[in-house]
Amino acid sequence: MITLKQLAQELNVSISTVSKALNNSEEIGEETVRRVKELAERYNYSPNKVALSLKQNKTKTIGVIIPDILNHFLAKVLFGIEREATQRGYHIMTCISNESLEKEKEALKLLANGSVDGFILCVAEETQIKNEIEHFKKTINQGLPIVMFDRVAHDVFCDKVIVDDFDVTYRAVKSLLSENRKKIAFFSSVDDLSVGKLRSHGYKKAILEHGQQDVLELKMKKDDDYQQKIRAFFEEHRDVDGILSADSSSGVIAINTALHLGLKVPEDISVIGFTSQSVSELSIPKLTTIRQHAKQIGASAADLLIKRLEKKHDALLDFKTTIVKTTLVNNQSTLKTVS
Amino acid sequence: MITLKQLAQELNVSISTVSKALNNSEEIGEETVRRVKELAERYNYSPNKVALSLKQNKTKTIGVIIPDILNHFLAKVLFGIEREATQRGYHIMTCISNESLEKEKEALKLLANGSVDGFILCVAEETQIKNEIEHFKKTINQGLPIVMFDRVAHDVFCDKVIVDDFDVTYRAVKSLLSENRKKIAFFSSVDDLSVGKLRSHGYKKAILEHGQQDVLELKMKKDDDYQQKIRAFFEEHRDVDGILSADSSSGVIAINTALHLGLKVPEDISVIGFTSQSVSELSIPKLTTIRQHAKQIGASAADLLIKRLEKKHDALLDFKTTIVKTTLVNNQSTLKTVS
DNA sequence: GTGAAAGCGCTAACAA
DNA sequence: TTGTTAGCGCTTTCAC
């Protein structure tokens, strides 16, 4: 890497002259500016980012901590964060917590030493189960703002971007009820997460309000064989005619299993799931889905963080919670257009 | 963030004394070391990463440029990179090229200014089509090593990590032939990529060697409606009894479509695909798959890069190409155990 | 219009 | 054993 010093030497001027010339300072003579710029161009000079960071005490880098990058929803959020950040001149440093509290703490500590200006994160499963929040508070106290998305810690004061999980699940189940479904089950492998709980509550509320059936939940663990669990469930509950799947894959598996058992979808049974377009197209009929607009969640989170980072020092912004509205996409695994 | 200077002031010693004490230098008195460490502990001191980077002229950060983070394979490689890097004390800065040459160039330039010590990347689709390599060479000439994985530019001298795409496809098709399949088709939506071409060649070689049928390829574009294309294909070629799917989703869709059309899988038709476990479980029967060990690809790439970054200055390492062996996983969409 | 010098936080060679 | 100093690459204030 070429430095200002080298350019200065070669041009027989001082370092500060070169610096000013490159930064279009008024002070420097036209001719000098021309010479400097020409040489800089030739050597492909670009100011050393690390030196700039040290000098200006900010890195223009955002630390992103996500629990699981193989989760399509989280990957999509990351995509949204990256795009927004890049557009606004920021880089992202990504750490994966693997749903572990320990790794989450470590990532926070490892990056909170000048490497990044702030964090965007989705709380790890273990952290939510143990309800730990000290590490977040400590980081914020160090002067590093945090934006949480999707799974958030309510007792931490920071910006948040969430989805209307409770509400949309409630509406989706209502929609199934209005198809005259009599026995609607709830499938979930995310019951330990804040969002999983919200979805479960939304389901229960709709069912209980309606008052014609009991709640019927199939809860699975990450390592379970979903096909087998779902099949067993269907065999035990032969009269189920509606499914609300709270995770990203059990909806598609539910359709395939139902078909396999000789049911017609959606004539005999309706299925709605939380998933992405690509996965929703892996069954025939395609899964009717609740779209979470993951990219937009990422973009909003990045926007909130960058706004806070670039705020004028006097104006302390209030913490904001942005709710990104979901959309019900009507594919073919339900009878009527949900909305 | 607390600095050495502040600690020094509070302890009434010099900055270098504090520095040395914290770095366990022999020079400093026991008592002083104790006092320094205690205060550092209390203030939660951690050396400023940016200052260290500037001083030591290395950032312990790896730039990762991937074409598409929503591609499950690539996400998994990224996961492998992140894990290996973290374990060895490196951070990763992730940029997404979106399959665009322009964005790839920009990412390279944006990070090659001291932000990272080297790159791990998967060549963008557009770059492969246009066969551009100057930006890679330039980066390497600037002293920043590159490791390429999966899709590589052959004419760039650097470390590479690839999969035996040609070979494994050849063997997979052979395996279908040994099931006595008479008309085996090749489905691909990755035909513009180097890996897609290798897979296609592997298929063709096996078919042509066998000599009993013509090659039969269904090529799709990213934005196509795969279900529709595949269904049309089946309707046109009613006698197809084997499918080799070269991308991550058409295999599952092929199974579902075949079932939908009344075929039995695998009795009437066998299907093998390149995909991940989670996707392979989205059909009944589950898709027989070629596992690419994406995590290991990522780990190998990180290992190669870090080795190069940390090599002693005298020993210039030769460029290595690591081939990560695929595995054929026998699920239920083929008749016999493939191997 | 140009240059010298300080300083961001740190390490390390050298001095005391 | 401890402190002084220089220097990593840059910007910026202040002198000339």
Number of domains of chain A: 3
Count, helices of chain A: 14
Q: What's the main sheet of chain A like?
A: 6 strands, parallel
Low-confidence stretches of chain A: none
Mind telling me the C-alpha Rg of chain A?
26 Å
- Quaternary arrangement of the chains shown? homodimer
Specify which chain pair forms the largest interface: A-B, 52 and 52 residues
Dominant shape of chain A: elongated
Q: Which sequence of SSEs, written as H and E, runs from N to C of chain A? A: HHHHEHEHEHHEEHEHEHEHEHEHEE
Q: Enumerate the strands of the largest sheet of chain A in spatial order, edge to edge or round the barrel.
A: 2-1-3-4-5-11
The CATH top-level class label of the largest domain in chain A? Alpha Beta
Give the strand tally of chain A. Answer: 12
Helix vs. strand class of chain A: alpha/beta
CATH architecture of the largest domain in chain A: 3-Layer(aba) Sandwich
Question: Quick summary of this structure?
Answer:
2 copies of one chain form a homodimer. The first copy, chain A, is an alpha/beta fold and 339 residues long.
